[in-house]
Design goal:
The protein is an alpha/beta fold and 270 residues long. The chain is 43% helix and 16% strand. The chain has 2 domains: 145 residues, Rossmann fold (3-Layer(aba) Sandwich); 112 residues, Rossmann fold. The protein contains 11 helices and 10 strands. Helix 2 packs across helix 3.
Length: 270
């Protein structure tokens, strides 16, 4: 059986990781769950996020994946260790890869972090960054208004640009040289984020570094998929509006997602 890489997120943000999997590991099959009915996770109580993450991991485990990727920074911050203790396959988060990428990119050691309320409150990025270097100057900012834009498919409207400018205003003039987009939804808003903080600030998405880690772990365990003549069949699940989810998925991955590969409105406990 060709085992898939299972990727989960609070909504559509984890598609940024899926897109990078398709680029770096095109032979791999992806199984994706976006909990769009309960997004965003950031304002929720940590115990609730842990429960939701357990539910989705349990659901995805029915398909016997070879790895689970928590492509949600909030879930990674509060539930990574819990999920690792419950399954016997590798579980990868997005925070440490994002921190590594930022330190590699930074020239001055002045690094900004934007994320959901839950991610910033957890201090997970600060901890991950300081594990690499204690000399860093870190500026963290919660941006709770950005995930709802992405979940609504509103990436480039005047309202979206104004919301990004307002949300990131406290970072302007802070002389950062890199900015971690500490939520996998945020790369959907790259243009407006870059315009707001200035194009000299390097924007860091954890997706690229996360997928490098995925590839390294699968290779070490002898689990990399072998190239085949036919393309792998990817499967997408959501808990909310299937029409909007399908539109965003197809647009972001730049390919029409076949209806036969999608199970809409998977029921979870709300």
């Amino acid at each position: 059986m060709n085992q898939a890489i299972a990727v989960m997120d609070s909504g559509v943000g984890g598609l940024t990781v899926v897109k990078e999997v398709l680029k770096q590991l095109p032979q791999e099959q992806v199984l994706y769950f976006g909990d769009t009915a309960r997004a965003p996770y950031g304002p929720r109580d940590p115990e609730e996020v842990v429960r939701f993450t357990r539910e989705i991991a349990e659901y995805l485990s029915r398909y016997q994946p070879k790895m689970i990727v928590l492509a949600c920074n909030t879930a990674t911050a509060v539930a990574l260790d819990d999920i690792r203790s419950r399954v016997d396959i590798p579980v990868v988060g997005v925070i440490k890869p994002g921190a590594r990428a930022a330190v590699k990119a930074s020239r001055s050691g002045r690094i900004g972090v934007i994320g959901t309320e839950g991610t910033i409150r957890s201090g997970a990025y600060d901890e991950a960054l300081r594990e690499i270097s204690s000399q860093l100057e870190i500026v963290s900012l919660a941006c709770p208004d950005l995930v709802p834009l992405v979940e609504a498919g509103d990436f480039d409207s005047p309202h979206a640009w104004e919301t990004v400018r307002r949300s990131l205003a406290p970072l302007v003039g802070r002389e950062l040289d890199s900015l971690i987009m500490g939520c996998t939804h945020y790369p959907f808003l790259t243009a407006s984020i870059a315009e707001t903080v200035g194009h000299k600030v390097e924007l860091i998405s954890s997706a690229e570094e996360t997928v490098r880690e995925i590839g390294t772990i699968l290779s070490y365990n002898g689990k990399l998929a072998k190239p085949k003549s036919e393309s792998p069949l990817h499967r997408f699940f959501c808990s909310g509006d299937p029409v909007l989810f399908r539109r965003i998925t197809s647009a972001w991955l730049e390919k029409q997602v076949e209806a036969s590969s999608i199970v809409w409105q998977v029921q979870t406990t709300c």
